[in-house]
Design goal:
Thrombin, subunit H; 31% strand; 4 domains; seven-stranded antiparallel beta sheet; 14 helices; elongated
């Protein structure tokens, strides 16, 4: 294949060009027309003239915001790009827009020949009325491997009316597409961005598809006025070309340019912005743009590319102005180059097999019917863009200043956020400590209240309230009081409170002969603090019969002592998850154990007092009987 490009000047010159290159003799011809002349009559006459000269030609065309020919940018011209194929066939289709841009694409796709699979699609769409993101998404559902290139039509940055057309004529408010079918056609796609984030991160708070109503709770247009000035807001959408919104999706920075400003303060963008999207303003970093361009040129200059088409955002032309040729010129040393400046670019990422709508981006479509990767030895490496020897040093310096300042501000904000987060965590921890101390104080007061209320007259009811309060206050799954029997062969459960069931239960006694090591450790008087019962040697004997059935993961056992001897234990058990017992929790448990020891001592004294009282009564009864016996005996002796 080969592509022959020319700038239209007159019908006569066009006829000479076609005849000189014998274009009409080729059977498969695709003509792309890129025109800055938006007059309907001019476009219709041009189509008629070309069809008269080449009746079988396939045409797709678009109005522009600048044209590209042989590595140079033009304005208000008409570029004709004739691609002559040897092993590729072409079909063109068009459709008018529906209110739903996704459905528009579905209507277009429905016209395709289902018996053929296209290799490449070049599509131009109305630049003001379509939702480009929803339109391009429909091709994901059709064929993710299809390469889709092209973009949204322009109208020289007037944002009034754009036009697309085919050999059949102008499509009012519509889309056009050319499909390339081939077994040998090789395809290359590249994209150069270079816009970077600037300013604070904001959030889309109200939006419907590509219409944004509020950002950070403020009318969208007022956000532009606040950060970029009232003049910029008044001049939207034209003034917003240089400052798109950049949204992060799947780790990628995706720019969204403004199409239209509504009277209610909402803004219409080229693609969707969703509620919750995190966004920043973007600006064209000349250094980054140059670096991206150089990387592309270095990557493809050795390829055998027979035709290159460039669909680049008008914002790049607006940013670079006359220097835009420096971005385009190196491509012309590789192959023929033509294209136009768009209001949005269609791009196919061959690595992820996805179709995207881009803004602020230069996209490249390379085609070849021969081996594209066959390096040409007679081609010198193109001269890359020189970011050190530019005439517009001032914009470049400002770009660098903005970039560096933004990075430093971002670092300051990040560090500040980290410090704030650390302080918040400290305050939360302090609040938790205060709350914990309050709980502990309240618990001690409750325990004292229990003793006062009951007068230590019923130790079982005290155990009931003690285990319940401890479990609920510290959120412990199970709390139990266990005491040795008289011969110390058993640990008898006096009371266990189960938090999940909100009830008290009696557990079976533990025999010392079955759990000798645990009894030995308990008798030593040491606190048994176990974070993971699965890994503890102390509780190994208890695992199968006691811990595993109840799914107890952590334990805190505080021995109850009387006169230096262990008489029982308060056992706190955490089920289902591991738990680290804090010093405060251990301290509280020890205090409670001390209270229990006193209660047991009082209970023992009460028992002794009761026994002494009983013995005294028995003695008094015996003495009474003895006195009675003496009286009877004395009386009997006197008689």
């Amino acid at each position: 294949m080969k592509t022959l490009d020319t700038k239209y000047s007159s019908d006569g010159d066009l006829e000479v060009f076609i005849n000189e290159h014998m274009i009409a003799k080729h059977s498969d011809i695709l003509l792309q027309i890129f025109t800055g002349n938006c007059e309907v009559e001019f476009i219709e006459n041009l189509i008629s003239t070309i069809k008269t000269l080449i009746p079988h030609i396939k045409i797709i065309g678009s109005t522009t915001s600048g044209e590209i020919l042989e590595g140079r940018a033009y304005s208000d011209t008409t570029i004709l790009s004739f691609s002559l194929f040897d092993h590729t066939t072409i079909s063109t289709y068009w459709v008018e827009l529906e209110s739903d841009s996704y459905q528009t694409a579905k209507n277009l796709i429905a016209q395709f020949d289902p018996q053929q699979t296209p290799k490449v699609a070049i599509s131009f769409a109305d630049g003001l009325l379509i939702n480009g993101e929803e339109y391009i998404n429909a091709f994901d559902d059709y064929d993710r491997d299809l390469i889709v290139a092209g973009g949204l039509a322009g109208d020289n940055a007037k944002f009034i009316n754009t036009t697309v057309f085919t050999q059949d004529g102008i499509v009012k408010s519509g889309v056009v597409i050319a499909l390339l079918y081939s077994e040998v056609l090789e395809v290359l796609t590249k994209a150069s961005f270079g816009w970077e984030n600037i300013g604070k991160t904001m959030t889309i708070t109200k939006a419907i598809k590509n219409v944004v109503y509020e950002i950070d709770g403020v009318d969208a247009v007022d956000i532009y006025a606040k950060y970029l000035g009232d003049n910029i807001a008044e001049m939207l959408p034209i003034a917003g070309i240089k400052f798109p919104l950049i949204v992060k999706r799947n780790g990628l920075s995706i720019p969204r340019a403004i199409f239209h400003k509504n009277s209610d303060g909402s803004l219409v963008f080229a693609g969707n912005l969703n509620v919750g999207d995190q966004i920043t303003f973007g600006y064209g970093n000349i250094e980054a743009i140059v670096d991206c361009g150089n990387a592309i040129y270095s990557d493809i200059y050795g390829y055998n590319i027979e035709s290159i088409f460039v669909y680049s955002c008008m914002a790049r032309k607006n940013l670079f102005r006359d220097a835009i040729d420096e971005e385009l010129a190196p491509l012309s040393s590789i192959s023929s180059v033509s294209g136009f400046f768009t209001y949005g670019e269609f791009y196919s990422d061959t690595h992820s097999s996805s179709h995207q709508l881009l803004n602020q981006t230069m996209t490249i479509l390379g085609l070849s019917e021969s081996n594209m990767k066959g390096v040409t030895n007679n081609r010198s490496k193109p001269i890359a863009l020189d970011n050190k020897n530019r005439d517009n040093i001032t914009p470049q310096a400002f770009s660098h200043l903005i970039s560096q300042t933004s990075k430093e501000l971002e670092e300051i904000n990040t560090n500040l956020e980290i410090k704030i987060e650390e302080e918040v965590k400290k305050n939360i921890y302090k609040d938790m400590q205060i709350a914990q101390q309050l709980k502990l104080t309240q618990m001690v007061e409750l325990i004292d209240a229990i003793g006062v209320q009951d007068g230590y007259s019923d130790i079982q009811s005290i155990f009931d309230k003690l285990t319940e309060v401890l479990s609920q206050t510290l959120n412990i799954s199970r709390v139990g009081v266990w005491l040795y029997n008289d011969d110390r062969t058993l640990l008898d459960c006096q009371n266990t409170y189960i938090l999940k069931e909100r009830c008290h239960k009696q557990c079976p006694s533990l025999k010392s002969e079955d759990y000798s090591y645990y009894f030995e450790v308990l008798d030593s008087g040491k606190i048994i603090n176990i974070i993971d019962t699965d890994m503890s040697e102390t509780t190994k004997e208890l695992y199968e019969d006691y811990l595993k059935p109840l799914n107890i993961k952590s334990m805190l056992n505080i021995p109850i002592k009387r006169e230096g001897r262990v008489v029982g234990v308060i056992c706190s058990e955490q089920a289902d998850s591991l738990r680290t017992w804090s010093e405060d929790e251990i301290g509280l448990s020890k205090a409670i154990v001390h209270s229990v020891s006193l209660m047991l001592e009082i209970e023992e004294r009460k028992n002794i007092d009761a026994l002494l009282t009983s013995k005294t009564k028995e003695q008094e009864a015996l003495l009474s009987l003895f006195d009675m016996g003496l009286s009877i005996l004395f009386k009997w002796n006197n008689d």
